[in-house]
Each structure stands twice: as structure tokens, then as C-alpha cells.
Amino acid sequence: MPYKYDYVENAVxxxxxxxxxxxxxxxxxxxxxxxxxxxxAAVPVPVSKPGQNxxxxxxxxxxxxxxxxxxxxxxxxxxxxxxxGVINMVVDTIAEMGxxxxxxxxxxxxPVHEPLIGHIKNGVIGNIQGSMNGPVGRFVSHGGLPTxxxxxxxxxxxxxxxxxxxxxDVAFIAAPCADDYGNAxxxxxxxxxxxxxxxxxxxMYADKVVVITDNMIPYPCVPYSIPSTHVDYVVQVPSIxxxxxxxxxxxxxxxxxxxxxxxxxxxxxxxxxxxxxDGFSFQTGAGGISLAITKFLGEEMERQGIKARFIxxxxxxxxxxxxxxxxxxxxxxxxxxDTASIQSFRDDLKHVETPMSMYANIHSxxxxxxxxxxxxxxxxxxxxxxxxxxxxxxxxLLLHGIGGHTDVAxxxxxxxxVIPSYRKRLPIIRERVTTVTTPGETxxxxxxxxxxxxxxxxxxxxxxxxxxxLPIKPxxxxxxxxxxxxxxxxxxxxxxxxxxxIEYRDGTIIDVVREVAKTDE
Amino acid sequence: MPYKYDYVENAVxxxxxxxxxxxxxxxxxxxxxxxxxxxxAAVPVPVSKPGQNxxxxxxxxxxxxxxxxxxxxxxxxxxxxxxxGVINMVVDTIAEMGxxxxxxxxxxxxPVHEPLIGHIKNGVIGNIQGSMNGPVGRFVSHGGLPTxxxxxxxxxxxxxxxxxxxxxDVAFIAAPCADDYGNAxxxxxxxxxxxxxxxxxxxMYADKVVVITDNMIPYPCVPYSIPSTHVDYVVQVPSIxxxxxxxxxxxxxxxxxxxxxxxxxxxxxxxxxxxxxDGFSFQTGAGGISLAITKFLGEEMERQGIKARFIxxxxxxxxxxxxxxxxxxxxxxxxxxDTASIQSFRDDLKHVETPMSMYANIHSxxxxxxxxxxxxxxxxxxxxxxxxxxxxxxxxLLLHGIGGHTDVAxxxxxxxxVIPSYRKRLPIIRERVTTVTTPGETxxxxxxxxxxxxxxxxxxxxxxxxxxxLPIKPxxxxxxxxxxxxxxxxxxxxxxxxxxxIEYRDGTIIDVVREVAKTDE
Lengths: 521, 521
Description:
Two copies of one chain form a homodimer.
Chain A: E1 7-9, E2 15-17, E3 19-20, E4 23-24, E5 55-56, H1 59-66, E6 73-76, H2 86-96, E7 102-106, E8 108-109, H3 116-121, E9 125-128, E10 131-132, H4 135-141, E11 149-151, H5 154-163, E12 170-175, E13 177-178, E14 184-185, H6 200-205, E15 208-213, E16 233-236, H7 243-246, H8 257-271, E17 280-283, H9 288-304, E18 308-312, H10 317-324, E19 328-333, H11 339-347, E20 351-353, H12 356-360, E21 374-377, E22 381-383, E23 388-389, H13 405-411, E24 414-418, E25 422-423, E26 426-427, E27 429-430, E28 445-448, E29 451-454, H14 459-464, H15 475-486, E30 494-503, E31 509-516
Parallel strand pairs in A: 5-16, 6-7, 6-12, 7-9, 8-10, 11-30, 12-15, 15-16, 17-18, 17-21, 18-19, 19-20, 21-24, 22-27, 24-28
Antiparallel strand pairs in A: 1-2, 3-4, 13-14, 22-23, 25-26, 28-29, 30-31
Helix pairs in contact in A: 8-9
């Protein structure tokens, strides 16, 4: 089957089809070209009567009550991560009921969701719009999905839902704690996960909303992350997931000397960047390098008597420790990664939930990422234009979601990519990244164990670090140095067919992902 | 000027014009006839860019930036009650700027807002949609407003805004605490008022939102009742109000023997009603009788070892004391009435804010009033059909808003009206109330110091109290008894012209308010 597309070049030099799957695409025009306008989606007008019973005995009954049928779109959150039991449970039920051609719009899929591949093959799932970490991504890469998948950032997904680009017919919300009216939180019960921030927009905009819980408490469930005003049905199940895999007992700092060196470079860069001062703010994640930077920054803050105004999480025990010591005044939290963070989120008044619209929606009147001073982020590849790939590997396989990467890069005053210069003999710095996830114009610095490259757009930083002892060098030097060790890798074995779109946070298309030939092809 | 209307009779027997001020009216059809349907209003798509500055130097600059012009609608909350300084400040500025024919859509006006009368006279204010407590209501009663005012319940106002019936061009939100990005709360600062629950819907649905604060703190203001995602501009002013009049230092229980007797009857009725059991819930207010009932219930709960699951507030120190004693597990809070309650609202994890949509929106998927067992409410009049008037006095003057009265009555399992049988020689129980605010089908019991009347619809309660020692009697007996003391008052001196509509919570019209002749007419 030949795949022909009518292309137009976008602002990062990628060729984007004008149309795909009957959908007209808008090519990426630059990170800050969007100006809003128009009106958001209008949601249905429901009615609330006294005596209303929302509790249904099974997921099947909830699916029936919602009127789910062929071709509709359903959504899920990924707060239960690789411990999630709900997506498979719901899709299995949909399959049993004979419903087909469903668009799946999760915030993210994990290895635990590998069984969905069977449901793609049997026609139950017709499209996926959401992050695919691992097996489902690999399957889509090899052309397994009959349609083109769409990947969005955390902020971009909210935007798409609010703007009506992604209409959700039924949202299924896994809830570690809920009452019979649908008020739900993530802080109590065996499957506690912290905030339910990813699902808030689904609750606000989906036509029908089903809360699925393994911990039903007497009304009212307080606090609530999901308000009963937006929930149609509640289903109790024996278990929504595997607590062992929902959060780790503890998150650990990297022990790799290479990664510790990267973290040390990054921390030193930050400390000398001008951004490190009383009242500053930064974003942390759960990655080993990110945790090490957080730790190093915390130590320096204590030494210098500097306090941060807020940390924008993913929150871990390391951020909570700094908060408890008084080094940070506020924790903003979209997700937590360990049990200590759940406790703090539950109990501390200045540790608050950030629904994704507040976190990163470009179509809001102001989002959190735009107010943060520093973000340190990962990558699978970066290129000479500072474009960053977080979705595909150099072999072209689509194995990761975007998360908040692109959002933070656009918003943060100082956006750093902190990465080892090569992985498994594959260089990270490329002539052109395999996939552009985040445009180079929003990336300020690349930090590797072999050197630090500053984006030429940031003349101020280049000047500031002119006489620095840090190993600062132009990115093409860094690239050359690494290639001397690794060589230049083979290009990925890509086919013509486009299997996924990488949507920028404003709804334009920044890149496409092509089918990867199987090794036996 | 002759006023002719083309009438249709509604379900409580009131004659409602088919159309007024070019607006087609839907007559009230019964409390539970509404079934939702259609779509809510679609809000504008804004954009959030890094570096955006929301802080403007004056209210005038904010009004200009919002593009406010003749004929538009502006809104305010009433959390600052009779201490509010913001409404007058903003309308004065609008007047100075020469803008005219503004529709004012506050949640409520108080005596402090009497200067608005001048702005009605000079054409700055063309219409009012909101509660008018005191002088502005009196002025409107006498025909001072050139158009017909609309009064809505707390839940009904949210519904109207969300459904697009009341479109707000610019919402001005007085904030006791805010940051430069518009995150705002009511718990810190000299003008602290507790929640900002009335304004939440305004922030969500208004085209433009301006936060006005006298207490700007460094970003981020946490917790936030109003999220920065929905705020366009922030203005700092020396003072948003008079703290002495925003909340009372303490709320006081009535000392009137008559009112204490009513409270005692009401408490005894509740205790024997079947609703008083472990896990029950009720709503309190700040009125003297309501506080006394709360106190009596609390004492009995302690005696019997009964715990309430939640109190739905207006919260006072009395509710907080019960909460602290462990007699109540959760406090739901739309507004607070004293400083002790602000502290509890600020610090206690199980004392949470209820935006008005969660409190009482019939066009939600489930609101709080529908889950509460008991509500005790006031009235200016009740009638033989148990219809309740809270808006006008027997002289026809429109002096009070609806508040949550109608919402609670529709939702609560047991809705009691607790009132003295007469006031200033005017009987409270009338053949027909002057104005129907709340339909009799939603009222269960009338409690006065001279006896208790149960709505004949509640055969279960009539049976239950058959042999009660409480002075239970049919409502026409009670009426007769009171009239033997007071006589039957003169009918109000009403003119033909309709000056206000009483909108039921579903958007239908339950009654109209007519112009009252001045004493010299």
C-alpha cells in the first residue's frame, strides 16, 4: 500500500502532511506564535435531582449507562502508572460487549497495558491519542494501528480537550478513594497515588464520567480532586491496581558516576546562571539525574541561605525534604513518585494539586510553567539546532510520551537538557533529531558529562559563562567529540507510512513519526 | 405609563408574563420538572505566554484593558458583605469613564452599596441581576430601575452563568490575598473573609476577569480559591473593604425567649424526625435561631453519642466547635461568618470550600444540597400552600435576596422554616405569600413559637409525630391563631409595573415583584 502525502514544511523544517485520516493539520509555526481566539468546547447540561443514585454494580453497567458505542472516544489517567489495573479492565469489558473502533485517549500507557495490543488487532481500539510508553508504542511504530496516533504534551492534551479538538465521550477515572456521589481523591486507600490532576480536565469536559474505585468511603469524600458535580456513575471494584507499581516506596538518586557528574555540572551551571537567588523556582522530576540536581541545589541553598518560592513537581521525597526544612515555600504537584510525597500532599497546606490546565495549558490565562525559573529535562536525542527528541529512539521506535517536556521548555526561564552524551554506543547529539518533540528555540542549555552547550540564542548566558571553569563548548564540538567515540549510527529503517503525529502544545504539528521496518523486513 | 403584560399562570398559581424586556420567560413548572439538556456556554480561548504581566496600576486601566463598554455586564461577589469597598469603587470608576447602561450582576448587594442608586439614576447602571439587600432593593421596589431586575438563588445564578443565560463580560473579584498572576484566596490579610466560593463561576465563565486585592503576596498565592488560569488582570488597591463589617468577631446566639423557644421546638422536631442519626448532615446559617438550633443539636449529639458526617455552611464558630469536638467530620463551606471560622477554613483539611456549582447547581451532575438531610431556613412569609417568601415584606418591598434558600429546600430531606409567628404585628403565615420565592412542594415543616405545621405532602412525618408532645397543628389553625393577635394586614400598595423577576433555580420564573407605591402616592 503506497502512502502519499501532500506536504508542507513547518518552522523546524519538518515535512507535515496537509491532511491525514481526514484531519486537516496545522504545521508548527514557532513556539510563541499562537494567540488563542475562538471559543472552547461547550459541555452538555446535566441535571441533579435529590435521591439520584450513581452507583452501578459493574463496569459493564456503567458502559451501558453511558451509551458507549462504536467509534466513540474514552479516556483514562496514568496516575497509577505501571500499576494501573483500570484501562485493561475497561477495554476488556468493551471488547466483551462487542463495541468496536474506540479511540483511546489516555494521558499515558505503560508496559502493563501491553494487552491492549490484542484489542487493536481485533478492532476494538481504532485509534490512540495519548502517550505510549513501551510495548504499545513499539507496536504502533511497526504499523500495528490502522490509523495515525496523536501524541500531545500534558498541557497540549488539556488544550485539545478544552478546545474541542479531542472530544471525550466517556472518561473513566481510577480513584484510590471515592464516595457514592463521585467525589474522588488519590490520597487514601491501598491504591493511593497522590493527586488526580491528569483527570480533572476529563471530568470537566467529557460527556459522561465514570469513577472506578476500590475504596468507597461514606459521602462526602473530602478532600476531592474530582468533584461529584461532574461525575455520572461510580463503580466499586476489588482493586484498581497494584500498589507496588503505583508509587515506589522510595525514589533513588543515581549512583552512576557519569550521571552524578552531569548533575554536578547542571547544578553548578544553575548556581552561576543568575537564576539561583532568593525566591527562585524550579521543576523536578523522578529521574536519577534530576533527583541528584535537586539534592545538590538543596545543599547549596542551605549553604547560601537561599530559599525557593516553589517547586513544580512531579514531587519526590527530595522535594518534600527541602519543603520540610523550609528551603521551599510551596510545592505544586501534578503527580507524586513516592509514598513520602503522598503523605505530604495529603497533609501539607502549602503542597497543592495542579490540574494540567494550571500546570501547562497555553490556552489558559496563565499557566505555571510560564512562571518557573528553571527546568531540567531529559531527552533521547538533541540536535545542532537544539531541537529535542523525547519520543523516539535513534532506531525510530516510538517508545515514550512527551509528558510536560515541551511545556516546561516553553515556559521556564532557563531550560536545561541533562543527558549522558551517549547511550549504548549511540550518540545523543545528532545532526538532526529523529523526531522533533520540543523546538530548539525553547531549549537554553545542553548538559552532558563531556561538556555544556549553550543555545546561541542565549547570548546573555554565553556572556555570563565566558570565563567559567565549567566545560562550556559549542554544540558541534560536543557532537564531534562524542562521535569520535561512538561513530555515526545507521539511520533508522523507516517506511513511508506516518504512524503518529507529534502535536505541539498549541495544536500545530511539529513532527511526524514513521513506521519502522521490522528486523525481518 | 401603562404596563400591559401577556400572562401565563405558573405551577404555583402566579401570573408570569410571556415576555419582558425582550426576554422570553419560562413559567415555573414544578420543583423537579427540569431535565437539563443542550450545551453550556462556550468560553473564549485565551493564550498564556511567558513574561505576561497582569498587574495594572488602577481599576481604570483594568476596565480599559478589558474593553468594557456601554451595555455590558459586570459581576462581583458578596464575601465582603456590608464591608465591601470594591463594588462602589469599580462602579464609580466606570461612571467617571462615561460608560453607561451596565448590567450589574453581583451575588448580592448590601446597605453599603446604597451609592449605586445614584448610578442607576444617572444611567450608568441599566439593569441588576442579583440579590439586593436593603436600600437598592427598596429603590428598585419603588420603580427606580429602568428595566426589570432578576433575582436568582445561589445555585440558580451559577446555572444561569454556566448555561449562558447570564453572560458576564467582566468579573471583578475582590481578593483578601492574591499574587501578581491572579491566584487569589480569602484567608490571609486584613480583609480576610474565608472562601471566595461565590466568584468561582464568574472566573470560569466571564470573558475577562480582574482580581482586585489589598494584599499582594509573592507568586504563588497558595491555597487558591480563584486560579490564575482564569484571571486576566490584577489591581492592587489600598483597601478592598472594612474588616469590621466583613465578618463579625463572633456570631451570637439569639437571646430572645421567643426565638429560643422556636429553636428548641425545631431541635426537638429534628431529634425525633428520624433524620437525627449517626452520619446525618445538616445546613447551618448565621441567624440567631439557626445558631441556637445548631447549639441544641450539638448538645443532644454529645448526649446520644451521635456524629454528623457533614455540616453544609455558612459556617460559624458553633459549627467549628462541633467539628473540633469530633461531632462533625466535614465542614463544607460557601461562606463564613466569624473569625474563628476563617481560621478553621484556612487550617483544617476537612473544612473545605464549596464553589456554588457544587453547593447547589441543578445543572450539575450532583450538588451538595441534594445530599443533606436537614436544612433550617428563615422566611418573611409563608402561606397555606407552604410557599415561602424571603424576598419581599408584606408591604411588597423587595429587601432581601434568595441566597441558597430555594436550593436547600429542594435538596434537603427535611426542610424546616423556623420563624416567629409575627413580626412588628405582621403575621408571618398568610393566605397567599406576597412573593413566592420557594415553592411549598419543597417545604416540609413550619416551626413557630406558637406551633409546628407539617406539610400535608409529608404523610410520613405527620404519622411519626401523631402522638408527639410538640405543638403540632395544621397550618390554617396556626394562621388563625396568629391573626387573632395581629389582625389581617393591609394588602401592599402595588402598581401594575413589574420591577423584578424571581427566577427558580432551573431558570423558570416562579414569581414577579411589582412596583410599590410610595407613601406619598
